Amino acid sequence: MTTVNTLLSICCIVLSVIMTYFLIKARGTKGLLIQTLYLRNGLADFFVGLGILLQSPIIYLMVLKGAGMPNTTVLAYISYTVTGIAIKMSVFMNCVLGIVRWINIVKPFYHINRKALTYCTLLYLMIWMLFVGIDLWQFSTDRKAVNRDNHVFVVKSLIIKGLPGRGLIPLMTNNGQFKT
What's the mean pLDDT in 144-166? Predict the structure, then answer.
């Protein structure tokens, strides 16, 4: 699994860098909106590849060393954060790109406000950073409450299963207990 993840993430990173290079080269002095959106999407895909590339050595260390592996909790947190936010931003940028293309087809002379689009993108990024931060905070407090300082548990739940704190659901329930 780690070999496949590594190969796919390296391909994703290389293709994102190539696409970003050609978009920057083609932009010239006046950047078009569509090229800017493709550039943002390419950057999000680059960070997806980077986050998945970071997961491979963590899983390798877990398989190789088991419970006696060095403290990779911080790397698992970073990998989960980068991958989670980058995937959501990539999906969002694809949706925005589709909507902008649809507007350009339906109303070809309609001017889309780039500043408002940038603010929406930044707001979406900040919202997901907040959600992932709450998710990791819940995971770390739940882990400390159950006395699970085992690094294998952290890697299995953050990277392999991908469900650390289950989001905002435990905060909204009455007793704070949510069973999956």
Answer: 57
